[in-house]
Design brief:
about 210 residues; Arc Repressor Mutant, subunit A; Tetracycline Repressor, domain 2
Length: about 210
């Protein structure tokens, strides 16, 4: 059983590496098997096809992602909405950083219009919207947040959370920022906290911005 688990993990790691460098369409099953040092039959056994392998990667990533959101927002009753939102940002960034290679693959694939991605949107991403909307509405009710146009705030938040993994080459080669370094996460979260104060919090909350 342990051997099977390691083989499956090797295939997933190899696929993520190749999808990131050659793209999904530019990668063959044989290349994945060669990089993982396994037989092609192993990929068919565990995933049925290259498409099945990709679906497994995307599903596994978003299952973990939603679990992080649910666990973080589950503490909302015991803290302010503002602190909960900051905890969400911290938790999501930590999760993405820990799984940064697969995050790059997943976020690129979400932009592709396929039946599978539509299913992902109606399950995981719809649930994400529900969780974040509930958090924002709670903040408004508690008068911590301004009256917000939730879809647009969520768009901005999502853009900031995913940008380092959608455009990692741009960050590294144009802005000379290294998103894989731990210090990047720490600094980036500070900048996102500024955004929370400026775009989300009411006037009373804004005065806590750290300059």
């Amino acid at each position: 059983m342990v051997v099977k688990s390691k083989t499956k993990e090797k295939v997933m790691d190899a696929a993520v590496s190749l999808f990131n460098t050659k793209g999904f369409d530019g990668t063959s099953v044989r290349e994945i098997a060669k990089k993982a040092n396994v037989n092609v039959a192993n990929i068919s056994y565990y995933f049925e096809s290259k498409e099945g392998l990709l679906e497994h990667l995307v599903t596994t990533f978003f299952e973990g992602y939603i679990q992080v959101l649910e666990q973080t927002v589950g503490t909302l009753e015991h803290q302010s909405a503002k602190q909960c939102l900051m905890n969400v940002i911290q938790s999501v960034m930590d999760y993405q950083h820990e799984h940064r290679h697969i995050a790059r693959v997943v976020y690129r694939q979400v932009s592709v219009d396929t039946m599978f991605i539509r299913e992902v949107m109606t399950t995981y991403l719809a649930k994400e919207k529900y969780i974040l909307t509930a958090l924002l509405e709670k903040g408004v009710k508690q008068k911590e947040f301004r009256r917000l146009n939730s879809p647009y705030i969520i768009m901005q938040l999502k853009g900031m959370l995913t940008m380092p993994y959608l455009h990692s080459q741009y960050l590294a080669e144009v802005l000379y920022v290294l998103p894989h370094e731990p210090y990047f996460i720490k600094q980036y979260i500070k900048e996102m906290e500024r955004w929370v104060h400026q775009a989300v919090c009411n006037d009373r909350g804004r005065m806590y911005v750290t300059l």
